[in-house]
Amino acid sequence: MAVRAGFLLAAAAWVWLSAVAASAFDDVPTAAFDERFSPLFGDGNLVRSSDDRSVRLLLDRRSGSGFMSSDYYLHGFFSASIKLPKDYTAGVVVAFYLSNGDVYEKTHDELDFEFLGSRWGGQWRVQTNVYGNGSTSHGREERYLLPFDPTLEAHRYSVLWAPTHIIFYIDDTPIREVIRHPDMGGDFPAKPMALYATIWDGSAWATEGGKYKVNYKYAPFASEFSDLAVVGPRADPVLRAPRGAGDDQDLLGLMTADYAVMTPQKRAAMRAFRARHMTYTVCYDAVRYASGPFPECDNSDEERENFSAWGESKTVVMRPRARGRRRGRKAGAGAGARGRADVASS
């Protein structure tokens, strides 16, 4: 009962925090799938709605699935409402991310939302990451628990990528801000990227370091994407320049939009989220990065006391929620699931 009561209090607090910045997203235009996106892999495991405004991505024994934007963008605002698979989801990874890895294999940039399944229904973890210029050996991971069950209804996940800063949002509340520091150099993403969405088998690492694998008796695992939004100047990924006239104005509009500006109220909401829900941050990982925190980290001695030397929170830990009997559906035989190979392990 105590765990359930704590969850309800967290959910109530989340409703209040989300309302702080809700108006920032009221005017963001959404797009039909055909207007901005193309299938990436998965064939029949990518299912588009009849009105072309939403997509279901499925993972089964045969394959995962995914789609990507039809264009590359040099900065922008990227958003989707996502409903995650339910029941036993250990080893399952759903990703919503920006990347140019197919153009710059060894010097790629990337901004990630990665959703990591668990043995307990609804207890998904969310990981954000920032790569620039192929800096995968020192990625900037952070992980969080969610104050709601993401399998019951869709929630909005967004990334604002500007020349000066990056903001990750969940349901209109900022959860992470990365301000470009001169000492970051090429670690700050600066080349045109495309937007991707995938579901795949991450059994090797996604749940407790690979201890728990995908169990295909619960397949197909279905993730739903709707309210797809891409706002920003289109760009040539090789020339690294905007494609058309007026794109400078698009960048000005992006930089002055509500979702690109961190007000004191939004920053307070972000601090509250991080205090309640962040389970790991690279900024306090003194073991993996013994030379010190990254230049953009805004660390404090008081906050540091809440984290171990590995960057793990001492106060925010995953606990199983009250759950009913799990039910699954059998899946047919077939080849192994397919997914991204370039993701850093958890």
Automatic annotation (TrEMBL):
Protein name in the entry: Xyloglucan endotransglucosylase/hydrolase
Keywords, alphabetical: Apoplast, Cell wall, Cell wall biogenesis/degradation, Disulfide bond, Glycosidase, Hydrolase, Secreted, Signal, Transferase
Record PTM: Contains at least one intrachain disulfide bond essential for its enzymatic activity.
E.C. number(s) listed in UniProt: 2.4.1.207
Organism, as annotated: Panicum hallii var. hallii
Top-level EC class: transferase
Homology family: Belongs to the glycosyl hydrolase 16 family.
SUPFAM superfamilies reported in the protein's UniProt record: Concanavalin A-like lectins/glucanases (SSF49899)
N-terminal signal peptide: 1-24
Active site per database record: 110 (proton donor), 114 (proton donor)
